[in-house]
Design goal:
Strand content: under 5%
Radius of gyration: 16 Å
Number of helices: 3
Structural class: mainly alpha
Number of strands: 0
Helix content: over 70%
Order of helices and strands: HHH
């Protein structure tokens, strides 16, 4: 049972370095998919709204990482 768990942790570590960053990205994408279509925002502005949201998440993560070091 240890080998599959260890393998899963290795695969997780390959793709996810910061779990809060990953959760933020998934949350932003979920908002873009499920909430933005119901806000009345024109479809041409949904892409830029997603871009701004993801940029904000990236900026927050960079600032938080810089403060740690």
């Amino acid at each position: 049972m240890r080998a599959p768990v260890a393998a899963a942790r290795q695969v997780w570590g390959l793709f996810v370095e910061d779990a809060s960053f990953t959760a933020g990205i998934l949350g932003c994408v979920a908002v873009a998919v499920f909430i933005l279509p119901h806000t009345g925002l024109r479809p041409a502005w949904r892409g830029p709204a997603l871009f701004v949201g993801l940029g904000g998440i990236l900026l927050e993560n960079v600032v938080r990482s810089a403060r740690r070091r």
